[in-house]
Amino acid sequence: xTTLARRDLLGAAGAAAAAAALPGRSARAQAQTTxxxxxxxxxxxxxxxxxxxxxxxxxQQAAAEFRNRGFNIEVISADHQNxxxxxxxxxRQWYDQGVDAIVDxxxxxxxxxxxxIAREKNKVFLNSGAATSDLTGAQCxxxxxxxxxxxxxxxxxxxxxxxxxxxxxxxxxxADYAFGHALxxxxxxxxxxxxxxxxxxxxxxxxxxxxxxAFVVQAQASRAKVLGMANASTDTVNTIKAAxxxxxxxxxxxxxxxxxxxxIHALGLEQGQGLLLTESFYWDLxxxxxxxSARIRPNNQNRPPAMVPAGCYGATLHYLKAVADLGAExxxxxxxxxxxxxxxxxxxxxxxxPGRIRExxxxxxxxxxxxxxxxxxxxxxxxxxxxxxxxxxDEAFRPLAEGGCAFLRS
Amino acid sequence: xMEFIESLTGVPTPLLFGQxxxxxxxxxxxxxxxxxxxVIFGLLNIVNLAHGALFMMGAFVAWMLLNYLGLGYWWAxxxxxxxxxxxxxxxxxxxxxxxxxxxxxxGLLLTFGLALVIEGVFRNYYGxxxxxxxxxxxxxxxxxxxxxxxxxxxxxxxIAALVFCLATWLVIEKxxxxxxxxxxxxxxxxxxxxxxxxxxxxxxxxxxxxxxAALAGVLAAPIYSVNPQMxxxxxxxxxxVVVIGGMGSILGSVVTGFTLGVVEGLTKVYWPxxxxxxxxxxxxxxxxxxxxxxxxxA
Lengths: 410, 298
Known about the structure:
The structure holds 2 protein chains of 2 kinds.
Chain A: H1 2-21, H2 26-31, E1 33-41, H3 52-65, E2 71-79, H4 84-96, E3 101-104, H5 108-120, E4 124-127, E5 144-146, H6 151-164, E6 169-175, H7 178-193, E7 197-204, H8 213-221, E8 226-230, H9 233-245, E9 253-256, H10 261-267, H11 269-272, E10 276-279, H12 287-296, H13 307-326, H14 328-333, H15 335-344, E11 347-349, E12 353-357, E13 363-364, E14 367-372, E15 385-391, H16 393-396, H17 400-403
Parallel strand pairs in A: 1-2, 1-3, 3-4, 4-5, 6-7, 6-8, 8-9
Antiparallel strand pairs in A: 10-14, 11-12, 12-13, 14-15
Chain B: H1 2-9, H2 13-44, H3 51-69, H4 73-96, H5 104-126, E1 142-144, E2 149-151, H6 152-174, H7 176-186, H8 188-193, H9 198-220, H10 230-245, H11 250-270, H12 278-289
Antiparallel strand pairs in B: 1-2
Helix pairs in contact in B: 2-6, 2-9, 2-10, 2-11, 3-4, 3-5, 3-9, 3-10, 4-9, 6-7, 10-11, 10-12
């Protein structure tokens, strides 16, 4: 995939040279600076459907809506295969070859690696896909904006809501790696704060586990009231399938801590109905999100955008506004200055509405608690959620003082 | 008695029995997949790394039959193995047959490549997040066994897998066709000299092994997410099962499949983090002590 990215870049460079050679266009082509955006995402692995091509489409949409502001915009993409080394290599190459901002980057381990590179090279990192709240906490960077969601938001939204409605004893089924541990830790904190307790947890090998029945039966034997699933994508789907098969839905509440509209589509409403989950974007939330989704659908296999791709749109659009405000030349020269300008400007886009970016790089917008509809309530494919509660942006995310972000103190 | 077991194991007896049963169910999948691998390796000398992808195809064909043609689970159980088996026959004719004279490594690399291509094609058209497939109405519900809650469908999987494994074993060990197969494994040239069409038999054996994988895929479709990666995790474990049982040994693969399912199930109680590793530890020990496998002939 690295070679593909290089070819794209060379092709773009060639095209620019060719444009410059054409008489009559040369003056304008030379006058305009090109801002280059690289969407680095999962194109072939388990997160492909929730990020991947959808993220590229949404980034391109933001670029298309921001045409003719005195600079050119170019969007390229590559597959990081969920491997930190592969992702880091592509990021270095891109930044060295004139990419100004890297967008998306799901998979927390890859995202943390790239945050370091962006800072080292004074470029911009617009993260939408990664979950770890460390991106704006222990490992924060003045060159990073963490746009869409994080483990704290998920834990507080879903974990908090379920504990408040009487789910005061929890059993966790956790993916045995950094992300799963972080999500379990953050959720367990909320459970304890609300007076609940964690009666047990089982950590399963990731990604080699397909069958969750053994863990589900252990959860059942624990007599906890809530089954906390600190995992993602097909693992969550397989856990829920097994839990329903073994009748856990009769005695326990399910807390799928990271679950999105694509996962509900994969699970089916019959098995997914009644689940509570937290997202910061849903296509059918209001008139603005519906209008945005209508613009995306034709390029997205007629699917509405999921949360992470919508975040790529919002982050890119706001970045481009900051670039226009700052001047493209200055924006290219300093990623740090561009991110500072992004933080100084209030945000507003169709996907997330008005909001702002906090000093530590955390984007603040409301978090929505949804309940999955029953098959009877749903009017058809993609009509999956009803809104239960809205947490305002200032309360949805971890307070600035608790994050321990180092560059704010210096 | 219950108290004695409990004091011995440190785990409540009902939970232990439950986990043993669940291990047996997973073992059923291991047994069916390793059986197909063993048959293919025994006769073709091909280490079929595409087996996981073909298992996945079985599940996808079941989904397609339901969503495009309206044919339910029972039809899928019949048709998916035939369709995927036919695909296997084409694969064998086009790609695998030229490799018989070469080293094992070529077959291994080729089938690995085929697996990547098949998975890539499905990922491109159906995405990576999976498709829903519901348990057929006849097999919905659960039995209360006293010590655990047993879904009817999981019980059906164990029974079906046992029947299919036994049938395959009977065909190979007790019928004339099976005798030809076993003879061709020993000395293909001699069997051909007796007027048996060995190349056709080899092709059909590959198709048969693939059909078994597809059958396991259909059985898996209602309990696991139907997605392009579903075979990848399973196939590595299944290879370990085949190696432990003895490459090419039919009885070995079935017995080892069920046994290792149970061992894995117990590991999930005592040390869940190691449940993916335990099978490979056993594999290493077996390879050191009996390089031909538990049931293999040196």
